[in-house]
Protein backbone atom coordinates (compact mmCIF):
# COMPACT_ATOMS: atom_id res chain seq x y z
CA UNK A 1 0.00 0.00 0.00
CA UNK A 2 1.30 3.44 -0.98
CA UNK A 3 2.07 5.78 1.92
CA UNK A 4 0.38 9.15 2.45
CA UNK A 5 1.29 11.67 5.15
CA UNK A 6 -1.51 13.95 6.31
CA UNK A 7 0.00 16.85 8.24
CA UNK A 8 -1.80 19.61 10.08
CA UNK A 9 -0.13 22.89 11.02
CA UNK A 10 -1.51 25.68 13.16
CA UNK A 11 -1.08 29.38 13.71
CA UNK A 12 2.32 29.20 15.40
CA UNK A 13 4.02 28.20 12.15
CA UNK A 14 1.70 30.08 9.77
CA UNK A 15 2.30 33.40 11.54
CA UNK A 16 6.10 33.05 11.41
CA UNK A 17 7.48 33.36 7.84
CA UNK A 18 10.88 31.88 8.77
CA UNK A 19 9.35 28.93 10.62
CA UNK A 20 6.92 28.35 7.73
CA UNK A 21 9.74 28.37 5.18
CA UNK A 22 11.71 25.77 7.18
CA UNK A 23 8.58 23.68 7.72
CA UNK A 24 7.69 23.69 4.01
CA UNK A 25 11.22 22.63 3.10
CA UNK A 26 10.98 19.68 5.50
CA UNK A 27 7.44 18.93 4.30
CA UNK A 28 8.50 18.89 0.64
CA UNK A 29 11.29 16.40 1.41
CA UNK A 30 8.86 13.79 2.80
CA UNK A 31 8.88 10.76 0.53
CA UNK A 32 5.54 9.76 -0.96
CA UNK A 33 2.28 11.62 -1.28
CA UNK A 34 1.41 14.36 1.18
CA UNK A 35 -1.55 16.40 2.31
CA UNK A 36 -1.09 19.62 4.26
CA UNK A 37 -3.97 21.03 6.25
CA UNK A 38 -3.44 24.52 7.57
CA UNK A 39 -5.35 26.37 10.23
CA UNK A 40 -5.80 30.08 10.38
CA UNK A 41 -3.28 32.06 12.32
CA UNK A 42 -3.57 35.59 13.56
CA UNK A 43 -4.15 37.29 10.21
CA UNK A 44 -7.91 36.63 10.25
CA UNK A 45 -8.27 38.10 13.74
CA UNK A 46 -6.13 41.09 12.78
CA UNK A 47 -8.15 41.68 9.61
CA UNK A 48 -11.42 41.52 11.54
CA UNK A 49 -10.08 44.06 14.03
CA UNK A 50 -8.87 46.38 11.27
CA UNK A 51 -12.25 46.15 9.54
CA UNK A 52 -14.01 46.88 12.83
CA UNK A 53 -15.83 43.55 12.84
CA UNK A 54 -16.49 42.62 16.43
CA UNK A 55 -15.99 39.04 17.46
CA UNK A 56 -19.41 37.64 18.28
CA UNK A 57 -19.50 35.40 21.34
CA UNK A 58 -22.32 33.24 22.65
CA UNK A 59 -22.06 31.34 25.95
CA UNK A 60 -18.29 31.77 25.81
CA UNK A 61 -17.95 30.32 22.29
CA UNK A 62 -16.82 32.18 19.22
CA UNK A 63 -19.50 32.63 16.55
CA UNK A 64 -18.77 32.67 12.83
CA UNK A 65 -21.15 35.36 11.60
CA UNK A 66 -21.44 36.32 7.93
CA UNK A 67 -18.65 38.89 8.01
CA UNK A 68 -16.33 36.54 9.91
CA UNK A 69 -16.99 33.78 7.37
CA UNK A 70 -16.05 36.20 4.61
CA UNK A 71 -12.77 37.01 6.34
CA UNK A 72 -11.79 33.41 7.13
CA UNK A 73 -12.60 32.39 3.54
CA UNK A 74 -10.40 35.19 2.23
CA UNK A 75 -7.55 34.63 4.65
CA UNK A 76 -7.51 30.81 4.86
CA UNK A 77 -8.53 29.77 1.32
CA UNK A 78 -6.98 32.85 -0.31
CA UNK A 79 -3.97 34.43 1.31
CA UNK A 80 -2.53 31.57 3.41
CA UNK A 81 -3.39 28.75 1.01
CA UNK A 82 -1.97 30.44 -2.09
CA UNK A 83 1.18 31.66 -0.38
CA UNK A 84 1.92 28.15 0.88
CA UNK A 85 1.35 26.76 -2.63
CA UNK A 86 3.59 29.39 -4.27
CA UNK A 87 6.35 28.61 -1.77
CA UNK A 88 6.02 24.88 -2.38
CA UNK A 89 6.29 25.35 -6.16
CA UNK A 90 9.49 27.33 -5.57
CA UNK A 91 11.08 24.26 -3.95
CA UNK A 92 9.79 21.98 -6.69
CA UNK A 93 6.96 20.42 -4.69
CA UNK A 94 4.14 20.41 -7.24
CA UNK A 95 1.14 21.21 -5.13
CA UNK A 96 -2.44 22.31 -5.52
CA UNK A 97 -4.28 24.41 -2.96
CA UNK A 98 -7.96 23.84 -2.36
CA UNK A 99 -10.70 24.06 0.24
CA UNK A 100 -13.44 21.56 1.03
CA UNK A 101 -15.79 23.08 -1.56
CA UNK A 102 -13.35 22.34 -4.38
CA UNK A 103 -13.94 19.10 -6.25
CA UNK A 104 -16.93 18.75 -3.91
CA UNK A 105 -14.35 17.30 -1.53
CA UNK A 106 -15.66 17.88 1.98
CA UNK A 107 -19.37 18.22 2.59
CA UNK A 108 -20.49 19.57 5.94
CA UNK A 109 -23.63 20.85 7.61
CA UNK A 110 -24.15 23.97 9.70
CA UNK A 111 -23.66 22.87 13.31
CA UNK A 112 -26.94 22.11 14.99
CA UNK A 113 -27.11 23.07 18.63
CA UNK A 114 -30.30 23.99 20.38
CA UNK A 115 -28.54 26.13 22.98
CA UNK A 116 -25.95 28.00 20.92
CA UNK A 117 -26.00 29.15 17.30
CA UNK A 118 -22.38 28.95 16.21
CA UNK A 119 -23.16 30.64 12.90
CA UNK A 120 -21.46 29.43 9.74
CA UNK A 121 -19.55 26.60 11.40
CA UNK A 122 -19.55 23.26 9.59
CA UNK A 123 -19.46 19.75 10.99
CA UNK A 124 -18.11 17.32 8.41
CA UNK A 125 -20.53 14.86 6.78
CA UNK A 126 -18.10 13.15 4.44
CA UNK A 127 -14.89 13.36 2.45
CA UNK A 128 -15.15 12.27 -1.20
CA UNK A 129 -12.39 9.68 -1.28
CA UNK A 130 -12.51 9.17 -5.03
CA UNK A 131 -11.97 12.87 -5.79
CA UNK A 132 -9.28 13.17 -3.15
CA UNK A 133 -7.45 10.14 -4.57
CA UNK A 134 -7.51 11.66 -8.06
CA UNK A 135 -5.98 14.87 -6.71
CA UNK A 136 -3.35 12.99 -4.71
CA UNK A 137 -2.38 10.89 -7.72
CA UNK A 138 -2.01 13.98 -9.92
CA UNK A 139 0.09 16.17 -7.59
CA UNK A 140 3.02 15.91 -5.18
CA UNK A 141 1.04 17.59 -2.42
CA UNK A 142 -2.48 18.82 -1.67
CA UNK A 143 -2.84 21.91 0.52
CA UNK A 144 -6.26 22.17 2.18
CA UNK A 145 -7.77 25.29 3.77
CA UNK A 146 -10.31 24.58 6.54
CA UNK A 147 -13.36 25.83 4.67
CA UNK A 148 -16.07 23.35 3.68
CA UNK A 149 -19.48 23.65 1.99
CA UNK A 150 -22.99 22.35 2.56
CA UNK A 151 -23.69 21.30 -1.02
CA UNK A 152 -26.29 24.07 -1.32
CA UNK A 153 -23.88 26.88 -2.09
CA UNK A 154 -22.98 27.83 1.48
CA UNK A 155 -19.35 27.88 2.61
CA UNK A 156 -18.68 26.86 6.23
CA UNK A 157 -15.82 27.47 8.65
CA UNK A 158 -14.53 24.11 9.86
CA UNK A 159 -12.02 23.02 12.49
CA UNK A 160 -8.70 22.19 10.81
CA UNK A 161 -7.91 19.33 13.25
CA UNK A 162 -11.21 17.70 12.26
CA UNK A 163 -10.49 18.14 8.56
CA UNK A 164 -7.09 16.49 9.06
CA UNK A 165 -8.68 13.57 10.89
CA UNK A 166 -11.51 13.09 8.39
CA UNK A 167 -9.13 13.34 5.44
CA UNK A 168 -6.73 10.81 6.99
CA UNK A 169 -9.62 8.42 7.70
CA UNK A 170 -10.97 8.71 4.17
CA UNK A 171 -7.53 8.03 2.68
CA UNK A 172 -6.85 5.03 4.92
CA UNK A 173 -9.07 2.88 2.68
CA UNK A 174 -6.59 3.24 -0.18
CA UNK A 175 -3.27 4.19 1.42
CA UNK A 176 -1.14 3.54 4.50
CA UNK A 177 -1.76 6.84 6.26
CA UNK A 178 0.15 8.62 8.96
CA UNK A 179 -1.65 11.57 10.51
CA UNK A 180 0.60 14.24 12.00
CA UNK A 181 -0.52 17.08 14.24
CA UNK A 182 2.06 19.84 14.53
CA UNK A 183 1.56 22.26 17.41
CA UNK A 184 3.57 24.43 19.77
CA UNK A 185 4.45 21.71 22.30
CA UNK A 186 7.03 18.93 21.70
CA UNK A 187 4.33 16.26 21.99
CA UNK A 188 1.90 14.87 24.55
CA UNK A 189 3.36 15.85 27.92
CA UNK A 190 3.07 14.00 31.21
CA UNK A 191 3.46 17.36 32.92
CA UNK A 192 1.89 20.21 30.91
CA UNK A 193 4.42 22.63 32.46
CA UNK A 194 7.48 20.54 31.56
CA UNK A 195 8.41 20.32 27.87
CA UNK A 196 10.85 17.53 28.73
CA UNK A 197 8.08 15.21 29.94
CA UNK A 198 7.08 14.21 26.39
CA UNK A 199 5.51 10.77 26.10
CA UNK A 200 7.25 8.94 23.25
CA UNK A 201 4.73 6.21 22.56
CA UNK A 202 1.12 5.73 23.42
CA UNK A 203 -1.35 2.91 22.86
CA UNK A 204 -4.97 2.55 24.05
CA UNK A 205 -4.14 0.81 27.36
CA UNK A 206 -1.50 3.41 28.31
CA UNK A 207 -3.91 6.18 27.31
CA UNK A 208 -6.66 4.70 29.51
CA UNK A 209 -4.21 4.38 32.39
CA UNK A 210 -3.17 8.05 32.03
CA UNK A 211 -6.79 9.20 31.83
CA UNK A 212 -7.58 7.33 35.08
CA UNK A 213 -4.55 8.91 36.72
CA UNK A 214 -5.81 12.33 35.63
CA UNK A 215 -2.50 12.86 33.80
CA UNK A 216 -3.97 14.05 30.49
CA UNK A 217 -4.51 17.79 30.62
CA UNK A 218 -7.71 19.34 29.38
CA UNK A 219 -6.91 20.52 25.87
CA UNK A 220 -5.13 17.27 25.02
CA UNK A 221 -7.97 14.89 25.89
CA UNK A 222 -10.17 15.52 22.81
CA UNK A 223 -7.07 15.57 20.58
CA UNK A 224 -6.09 12.09 21.80
CA UNK A 225 -9.64 10.77 21.61
CA UNK A 226 -9.74 11.95 17.99
CA UNK A 227 -6.37 10.31 17.37
CA UNK A 228 -7.61 6.92 18.65
CA UNK A 229 -10.82 7.33 16.66
CA UNK A 230 -8.73 7.87 13.51
CA UNK A 231 -6.66 4.75 14.27
CA UNK A 232 -9.81 2.69 14.75
CA UNK A 233 -11.01 3.96 11.37
CA UNK A 234 -7.91 2.60 9.66
CA UNK A 235 -5.22 5.29 9.99
CA UNK A 236 -1.87 3.54 10.54
CA UNK A 237 -0.37 5.91 13.10
CA UNK A 238 -0.84 9.35 14.57
CA UNK A 239 2.08 11.57 15.53
CA UNK A 240 1.87 14.72 17.64
CA UNK A 241 4.80 17.11 17.92
CA UNK A 242 6.47 20.32 16.85
CA UNK A 243 6.46 21.69 13.31
CA UNK A 244 10.10 22.78 13.58
CA UNK A 245 11.05 19.17 14.27
CA UNK A 246 9.02 17.62 11.46
CA UNK A 247 11.81 15.40 10.17
CA UNK A 248 12.60 13.80 13.53
CA UNK A 249 8.87 13.69 14.34
CA UNK A 250 8.21 11.61 11.23
CA UNK A 251 11.00 9.23 12.23
CA UNK A 252 9.57 8.85 15.72
CA UNK A 253 12.69 10.52 17.17
CA UNK A 254 10.68 13.37 18.64
CA UNK A 255 7.07 13.96 19.63
CA UNK A 256 4.48 11.33 20.54
CA UNK A 257 3.63 8.37 18.32
CA UNK A 258 0.20 6.87 18.83
CA UNK A 259 -0.67 3.40 17.54
CA UNK A 260 -3.26 0.78 18.33
CA UNK B 1 -11.44 17.00 -30.97
CA UNK B 2 -13.23 17.55 -27.68
CA UNK B 3 -14.68 21.01 -27.13
CA UNK B 4 -13.67 23.34 -24.30
CA UNK B 5 -15.26 26.69 -23.52
CA UNK B 6 -13.04 29.26 -21.81
CA UNK B 7 -15.20 32.01 -20.39
CA UNK B 8 -14.14 35.21 -18.70
CA UNK B 9 -16.45 37.26 -16.49
CA UNK B 10 -15.82 40.65 -14.96
CA UNK B 11 -16.94 42.75 -12.05
CA UNK B 12 -20.40 43.56 -13.40
CA UNK B 13 -21.55 39.98 -12.86
CA UNK B 14 -19.36 39.17 -9.82
CA UNK B 15 -20.71 42.15 -7.87
CA UNK B 16 -24.36 41.23 -8.51
CA UNK B 17 -25.39 38.02 -6.65
CA UNK B 18 -28.56 37.54 -8.73
CA UNK B 19 -26.74 38.06 -12.03
CA UNK B 20 -23.97 35.72 -10.88
CA UNK B 21 -26.46 33.01 -9.94
CA UNK B 22 -28.13 33.20 -13.35
CA UNK B 23 -24.78 33.24 -15.10
CA UNK B 24 -23.51 30.18 -13.20
CA UNK B 25 -26.68 28.28 -14.04
CA UNK B 26 -26.19 29.04 -17.75
CA UNK B 27 -22.48 28.27 -17.45
CA UNK B 28 -23.13 24.88 -15.82
CA UNK B 29 -25.50 23.92 -18.63
CA UNK B 30 -22.82 24.32 -21.32
CA UNK B 31 -22.07 20.96 -22.85
CA UNK B 32 -18.47 19.77 -22.63
CA UNK B 33 -15.57 20.92 -20.54
CA UNK B 34 -15.45 24.49 -19.28
CA UNK B 35 -13.02 26.92 -17.75
CA UNK B 36 -14.24 30.04 -15.95
CA UNK B 37 -11.86 32.93 -15.38
CA UNK B 38 -13.14 35.58 -13.05
CA UNK B 39 -11.87 39.09 -12.55
CA UNK B 40 -12.10 41.02 -9.35
CA UNK B 41 -15.11 43.17 -8.83
CA UNK B 42 -15.57 45.95 -6.34
CA UNK B 43 -14.95 43.92 -3.16
CA UNK B 44 -11.16 44.31 -3.36
CA UNK B 45 -11.43 48.08 -3.75
CA UNK B 46 -13.96 48.26 -0.91
CA UNK B 47 -11.76 46.14 1.37
CA UNK B 48 -8.73 48.32 0.63
CA UNK B 49 -10.74 51.43 1.47
CA UNK B 50 -12.05 49.89 4.71
CA UNK B 51 -8.53 48.86 5.70
CA UNK B 52 -7.27 52.35 4.93
CA UNK B 53 -4.92 51.15 2.21
CA UNK B 54 -4.46 53.95 -0.26
CA UNK B 55 -4.42 53.12 -3.92
CA UNK B 56 -0.90 53.78 -5.17
CA UNK B 57 -0.74 55.41 -8.57
CA UNK B 58 2.29 56.03 -10.77
CA UNK B 59 2.03 57.94 -14.05
CA UNK B 60 -1.72 57.37 -14.01
CA UNK B 61 -1.44 53.59 -13.62
CA UNK B 62 -2.56 51.57 -10.64
CA UNK B 63 0.25 49.95 -8.65
CA UNK B 64 -0.09 46.60 -6.91
CA UNK B 65 1.91 47.19 -3.73
CA UNK B 66 2.40 44.51 -1.09
CA UNK B 67 -0.81 45.29 0.81
CA UNK B 68 -2.86 45.45 -2.40
CA UNK B 69 -1.46 42.08 -3.50
CA UNK B 70 -2.52 40.63 -0.15
CA UNK B 71 -6.05 41.95 -0.63
CA UNK B 72 -6.46 40.78 -4.23
CA UNK B 73 -5.12 37.34 -3.30
CA UNK B 74 -7.64 37.12 -0.47
CA UNK B 75 -10.58 38.46 -2.42
CA UNK B 76 -9.97 36.87 -5.85
CA UNK B 77 -8.42 33.49 -4.92
CA UNK B 78 -10.31 33.21 -1.63
CA UNK B 79 -13.70 34.85 -1.36
CA UNK B 80 -14.82 35.09 -5.00
CA UNK B 81 -13.24 31.85 -6.20
CA UNK B 82 -14.61 29.70 -3.36
CA UNK B 83 -18.08 31.21 -3.48
CA UNK B 84 -18.32 30.53 -7.20
CA UNK B 85 -17.17 26.94 -6.66
CA UNK B 86 -19.65 26.34 -3.81
CA UNK B 87 -22.47 27.68 -5.99
CA UNK B 88 -21.44 25.47 -8.89
CA UNK B 89 -21.39 22.36 -6.67
CA UNK B 90 -24.93 23.23 -5.57
CA UNK B 91 -26.11 22.94 -9.18
CA UNK B 92 -24.16 19.73 -9.70
CA UNK B 93 -21.33 21.23 -11.72
CA UNK B 94 -18.31 19.49 -10.19
CA UNK B 95 -15.73 22.23 -10.21
CA UNK B 96 -12.37 23.02 -8.71
CA UNK B 97 -11.21 26.54 -7.93
CA UNK B 98 -7.57 27.44 -8.36
CA UNK B 99 -5.20 30.26 -9.14
CA UNK B 100 -2.16 30.27 -11.41
CA UNK B 101 0.15 29.14 -8.59
CA UNK B 102 -1.82 25.92 -8.12
CA UNK B 103 -0.49 22.90 -9.96
CA UNK B 104 2.26 25.29 -11.10
CA UNK B 105 -0.26 26.23 -13.78
CA UNK B 106 0.57 29.78 -14.84
CA UNK B 107 4.06 31.12 -14.44
CA UNK B 108 4.59 34.83 -14.79
CA UNK B 109 7.26 37.44 -14.16
CA UNK B 110 7.02 40.77 -12.41
CA UNK B 111 6.35 43.33 -15.14
CA UNK B 112 9.52 45.02 -16.30
CA UNK B 113 9.12 48.63 -17.21
CA UNK B 114 11.91 51.14 -16.96
CA UNK B 115 9.56 54.09 -16.51
CA UNK B 116 6.92 52.72 -14.14
CA UNK B 117 7.16 50.11 -11.37
CA UNK B 118 3.75 48.45 -11.39
CA UNK B 119 4.56 46.49 -8.24
CA UNK B 120 3.42 42.89 -7.97
CA UNK B 121 1.88 42.69 -11.43
CA UNK B 122 2.64 39.57 -13.43
CA UNK B 123 3.04 39.13 -17.18
CA UNK B 124 2.40 35.52 -18.19
CA UNK B 125 5.37 33.38 -19.28
CA UNK B 126 3.54 30.13 -19.88
CA UNK B 127 0.55 27.95 -19.06
CA UNK B 128 1.37 24.33 -18.19
CA UNK B 129 -0.86 22.57 -20.69
CA UNK B 130 -0.29 19.08 -19.29
CA UNK B 131 -1.38 20.04 -15.78
CA UNK B 132 -4.34 22.01 -17.10
CA UNK B 133 -5.44 19.06 -19.21
CA UNK B 134 -5.32 16.75 -16.18
CA UNK B 135 -7.51 19.13 -14.23
CA UNK B 136 -9.94 19.55 -17.10
CA UNK B 137 -10.24 15.80 -17.57
CA UNK B 138 -10.90 15.26 -13.85
CA UNK B 139 -13.58 17.93 -13.29
CA UNK B 140 -16.65 19.40 -14.99
CA UNK B 141 -15.28 22.92 -14.67
CA UNK B 142 -12.12 24.75 -13.62
CA UNK B 143 -12.54 28.16 -11.97
CA UNK B 144 -9.41 30.31 -12.18
CA UNK B 145 -8.64 33.40 -10.08
CA UNK B 146 -6.32 35.92 -11.78
CA UNK B 147 -3.33 35.42 -9.48
CA UNK B 148 -0.15 33.87 -10.87
CA UNK B 149 3.30 33.13 -9.45
CA UNK B 150 6.91 33.64 -10.48
CA UNK B 151 8.14 30.15 -9.57
CA UNK B 152 10.24 31.63 -6.75
CA UNK B 153 7.45 31.84 -4.18
CA UNK B 154 6.05 35.23 -5.19
CA UNK B 155 2.37 35.61 -6.08
CA UNK B 156 1.52 38.16 -8.78
CA UNK B 157 -1.64 40.05 -9.71
CA UNK B 158 -2.44 39.32 -13.36
CA UNK B 159 -4.97 40.65 -15.84
CA UNK B 160 -7.92 38.24 -16.10
CA UNK B 161 -8.42 38.89 -19.85
CA UNK B 162 -4.81 37.85 -20.43
CA UNK B 163 -5.22 34.71 -18.33
CA UNK B 164 -8.31 33.78 -20.36
CA UNK B 165 -6.43 34.31 -23.62
CA UNK B 166 -3.31 32.40 -22.53
CA UNK B 167 -5.40 29.53 -21.13
CA UNK B 168 -7.45 29.28 -24.33
CA UNK B 169 -4.29 29.30 -26.45
CA UNK B 170 -2.64 26.58 -24.33
CA UNK B 171 -5.74 24.40 -24.56
CA UNK B 172 -6.12 24.84 -28.31
CA UNK B 173 -3.33 22.27 -28.86
CA UNK B 174 -5.55 19.53 -27.42
CA UNK B 175 -9.13 20.78 -27.72
CA UNK B 176 -11.41 22.77 -30.01
CA UNK B 177 -11.55 25.95 -27.93
CA UNK B 178 -14.00 28.80 -27.91
CA UNK B 179 -12.90 31.81 -25.90
CA UNK B 180 -15.74 33.96 -24.55
CA UNK B 181 -15.36 37.42 -23.07
CA UNK B 182 -18.40 38.52 -21.08
CA UNK B 183 -18.63 42.20 -20.33
CA UNK B 184 -21.22 44.92 -19.81
CA UNK B 185 -21.84 45.70 -23.48
CA UNK B 186 -23.84 43.45 -25.86
CA UNK B 187 -20.75 42.93 -28.05
CA UNK B 188 -18.40 44.93 -30.25
CA UNK B 189 -20.34 48.06 -31.18
CA UNK B 190 -20.08 50.09 -34.37
CA UNK B 191 -21.21 53.07 -32.31
CA UNK B 192 -19.99 52.93 -28.70
CA UNK B 193 -23.04 54.93 -27.61
CA UNK B 194 -25.56 52.65 -29.32
CA UNK B 195 -26.07 49.19 -27.81
CA UNK B 196 -28.05 48.20 -30.89
CA UNK B 197 -25.06 48.67 -33.21
CA UNK B 198 -23.54 45.32 -32.26
CA UNK B 199 -21.37 43.74 -34.94
CA UNK B 200 -22.46 40.10 -35.32
CA UNK B 201 -19.44 38.66 -37.09
CA UNK B 202 -15.91 39.82 -37.56
CA UNK B 203 -12.94 38.48 -39.48
CA UNK B 204 -9.46 39.95 -39.99
CA UNK B 205 -10.32 41.87 -43.18
CA UNK B 206 -13.45 43.43 -41.66
CA UNK B 207 -11.47 44.27 -38.52
CA UNK B 208 -8.74 45.97 -40.59
CA UNK B 209 -11.37 47.88 -42.52
CA UNK B 210 -13.00 49.10 -39.27
CA UNK B 211 -9.62 50.10 -37.80
CA UNK B 212 -8.87 52.15 -40.93
CA UNK B 213 -12.29 53.80 -40.67
CA UNK B 214 -11.53 54.65 -37.01
CA UNK B 215 -14.69 52.76 -36.02
CA UNK B 216 -13.11 50.70 -33.24
CA UNK B 217 -13.29 52.65 -29.99
CA UNK B 218 -10.29 52.87 -27.69
CA UNK B 219 -10.93 50.20 -25.06
CA UNK B 220 -12.00 47.65 -27.65
CA UNK B 221 -8.90 47.81 -29.86
CA UNK B 222 -6.53 45.81 -27.57
CA UNK B 223 -9.35 43.34 -26.79
CA UNK B 224 -9.80 42.63 -30.49
CA UNK B 225 -6.08 42.49 -31.19
CA UNK B 226 -5.83 39.90 -28.39
CA UNK B 227 -8.76 38.00 -29.87
CA UNK B 228 -7.10 37.76 -33.28
CA UNK B 229 -3.84 36.78 -31.64
CA UNK B 230 -5.65 33.93 -29.84
CA UNK B 231 -7.20 32.79 -33.14
CA UNK B 232 -3.80 32.79 -34.82
CA UNK B 233 -2.50 30.65 -31.95
CA UNK B 234 -5.14 27.99 -32.63
CA UNK B 235 -8.27 29.08 -30.74
CA UNK B 236 -11.31 28.16 -32.88
CA UNK B 237 -13.44 31.21 -32.22
CA UNK B 238 -13.74 34.18 -29.90
CA UNK B 239 -17.07 35.54 -28.75
CA UNK B 240 -17.66 38.86 -27.01
CA UNK B 241 -20.95 39.71 -25.36
CA UNK B 242 -23.04 39.99 -22.24
CA UNK B 243 -22.91 37.55 -19.33
CA UNK B 244 -26.70 37.66 -18.89
CA UNK B 245 -27.07 36.41 -22.47
CA UNK B 246 -24.49 33.60 -22.22
CA UNK B 247 -26.74 30.98 -23.83
CA UNK B 248 -27.55 33.01 -26.92
CA UNK B 249 -23.98 34.30 -27.02
CA UNK B 250 -22.64 30.75 -27.24
CA UNK B 251 -25.06 30.02 -30.08
CA UNK B 252 -23.96 33.13 -31.96
CA UNK B 253 -27.45 34.61 -31.55
CA UNK B 254 -26.12 37.57 -29.58
CA UNK B 255 -22.79 39.33 -29.19
CA UNK B 256 -19.90 39.35 -31.62
CA UNK B 257 -18.32 36.20 -33.04
CA UNK B 258 -14.76 36.52 -34.23
CA UNK B 259 -13.16 33.97 -36.53
CA UNK B 260 -10.25 33.85 -38.94
Automatic annotation (TrEMBL), chains A, B:
Its main location: cytoplasm. Its EC number is 2.7.2.8. SUPFAM superfamilies: Carbamate kinase-like (SSF53633). Pfam families: AA_kinase (PF00696). GO terms for biological process: L-arginine biosynthetic process via ornithine. It catalyses: N-acetyl-L-glutamate + ATP = N-acetyl-L-glutamyl 5-phosphate + ADP. The keyword Amino-acid biosynthesis applies. Keywords: Amino-acid biosynthesis, Arginine biosynthesis, ATP-binding, Cytoplasm, Kinase, Nucleotide-binding, Transferase. Substrate binds at residues 40-41, 62, 157. The keyword Kinase applies. It is an enzyme of class 2 (transferase). It is found in: Cytoplasm. Residues 4-240 form the Aspartate/glutamate/uridylate kinase domain. Gene3D superfamilies: Acetylglutamate kinase-like. Catalyzes the ATP-dependent phosphorylation of N-acetyl-L-glutamate. PANTHER family: N-ACETYLGLUTAMATE SYNTHASE (PTHR23342), N-ACETYLGLUTAMATE SYNTHASE, MITOCHONDRIAL (PTHR23342:SF0). NCBIfam families: argB. This is Acetylglutamate kinase. It comes from Taibaiella soli. The gene is argB.
